[in-house]
Write a structure and sequence with these properties.
By secondary structure, the chain is mainly α. It has three helices and no strands. The chain has one domain.
């Protein structure tokens, strides 16, 4: 799916960015469920929020 979306031009890249934004909170929750300390969970959240802020999609930003 990743390569197909990248090959689809700007629309595909926009869809891929939105899909990543949908999936990343799941990774944060999974990190919290594994018993990771607050620093690790906070760092994962910071990475997600920074990635969203840097995106070119207003809905993700």
């Amino acid at each position: 799916m990743w390569n197909a979306l990248l090959g689809a031009g700007s629309i595909g890249q926009t869809l891929l960015t939105a899909w990543i934004a949908k999936e990343n909170p799941r990774n944060i929750l999974a990190c919290a469920r594994t018993g990771a300390d607050r620093h690790q969970v906070g760092h994962a959240r910071w990475k997600f929020l920074t990635w969203c802020a840097d995106s070119d999609i207003p809905e993700v930003r």
